[in-house]
Each structure stands twice: as structure tokens, then as C-alpha cells.
Amino acid sequence: MDRVKTGIVGLDEMLEGGFPRSHTVVVMGSFGTGKTTFGLQFLSEGLKQGEKGIYITLEEDERSIIDDAKSFGWDLKPAIDSKKLSIVKLEPTDAKTTISRIKSDLPDFIKSFGATRIVIDSISLLNMLFESDHEKRSNLFHLVQMIKKTGATCLMTAEVKDNNPLVSRDGLIEYTADGVISLRYDEPAEKSEIQLTIRIVKMRRINHSRRVKPYSITSNGIEVHSGAEVF
Ligand SMILES: Nc1ncnc2c1ncn2[C@@H]1O[C@H](COP(=O)(O)OP(=O)(O)OP(=O)(O)O)[C@@H](O)[C@H]1O
Ligand SMILES: [Mg+2]
Predict the structure, then answer these.
(1) Looking at the domain that runs over 3-224, which CATH code has it been given?
(2) 175-218 residue pLDDT tens
(3) What residue ranges do the domains of the chain occupy?
(4) C-beta 216 within 6 A of ligand 1
(5) How much distance in Å is there from the Cα of 29 to the middle of ligand 2?
(6) What is the pTM of this model?
(7) Is the pLDDT assigned to residue 226 strictly greater than 90?
(8) Which residues of 62-99 are buried (b: 16+ CB within 10 A; e: fewer)?
């Protein structure tokens, strides 16, 4: 299968090259585990490869996303100016407008923009627009199908349940998505430092590592230490 590099070297090794093209992958984790960083790194890698990307944010505004990226040395401004990257801010509080933008404008926009990488940060906030579980489920399904039809590879971030960092807040997206990557922190008794660990929980149609690997967030972004063992 054709692979799309995430730009996170150790993770691409664990994935034997990257995400399968046109997959939808959810990256889930608690606050501060690096979900937004992951999304930005994925898009920056795309830009490096000459691919176009769309960053859909429900959390931070465009300025804040640009500043986040800059702190890792990724200058998004030239890509935005030359229409290789678009940052779309959706309002999680204005359900009616946002739902209609997603349903009627987004499919055409992805196609006309020519994006091959899409990030949705976060799917948990997007889900909050819908009231019932049934609505959440069916809208999520349609959104994922719509994006798949465009052929783009999509990364969605998700928040996790307070009592279980391996399950997303709504517990829905991991079934719909082709892939699930979990980011979490542990506090090993023998260390006085929080340890961040990554797991590929699911990745349809490929052979991937199932090992738990440590990672860090540095001024270069996320680094997965695929040669190191956690346990
Ligand atoms: N420039 C940087 N250099 C090193 N580490 C950084 C840098 N920027 C952020 N970090 C680390 O990354 C963490 C935040 O990562 P990020 O915003 O991607 O997490 P998140 O999972 O999206 O969080 P949230 O759920 O709050 O949106 C910070 O708490 C910090 O530890
Ligand atoms: Mg974030």
C-alpha cells in the first residue's frame, strides 16, 4: 500500500513507512500529550513533500495555530499565502452554522483546494455540535466517508475519557477510523518525571508494531524513540 509519512521518524518506522494513503487516523490523548503538535507535524511533512493540506480547528484560532507551529520551527505563513495550506476555524458554539459549513461547503472546498492531507482538531469538539448519540454517530460516519471519497489522508485528534486514556471521550471514532494511535502519560514510580508513551492500537490493512514506545516533545516536534523500551 502507498504510504504517507507522518514526519515523525520513529513512528513511521513503527508503521513500516507511514499511514496508508487515504486512511483516516485518530490520534487520541489527554490534554498536553501533543495531539495538536502531531497534526501540525503531519501537515508540515506534507508541505515538504509538495502536498497541500487543510487544518480544521475547533479549538485554537488561525493565529494561535501559526504560533504553535512556529515554536517548532515550522513557518506556515508562506504555505498559507501560496494556497498550499488552509487553516479553517469552526466555531464549536455555533452549531447551526458550523454543521451547515461542514455538510455543504467542506466537501467542495477539499476538492477544489486539492488537499491530500487533512487534520481535524478536535473531533471531540466537533461531536459536541450534535445532541444525541445517534446524531453523533451518523454525522461522524458521513464526515469520514466524505473525506475518504476525496482520497485525502485524514488525521483527527480526540480527547479521551477521564478514567480510561485508551478510549475517546465519545467512544465512537475508534470504530469508524481506519487507524487509532494513543498518546498517554505515565508516572513510573522509579522516575520523578512524566513519561510520554505512544501505541498504535489499530491500523487497518497493514502490519504495524504493537510495542509501547516512549516519545518526547522537543523544539523539533514529536520524536518517537522507537529503539527504546518502556517496560
Ligand atoms: N516549542 C516546544 N518545544 C518543546 N515542547 C513543546 C513546545 N511546544 C509545546 N511543547 C510541549 O507540548 C505540549 C503541548 O502539546 P499540544 O498542544 O500539541 O498538546 P495537545 O494534546 O494538543 O493539548 P490540548 O489537549 O490541550 O489541546 C506542551 O504542554 C509542552 O509540553
Ligand atoms: Mg491541542
Answers:
(1) 3.40.50.300
(2) 999 999 999 998 887 878 899 999 999 999 999 999 999 999 99
(3) 3-224
(4) no
(5) 10
(6) 0.96
(7) no
(8) eeebbebbeebebebeebeeeebbbbbebebeeeeebb
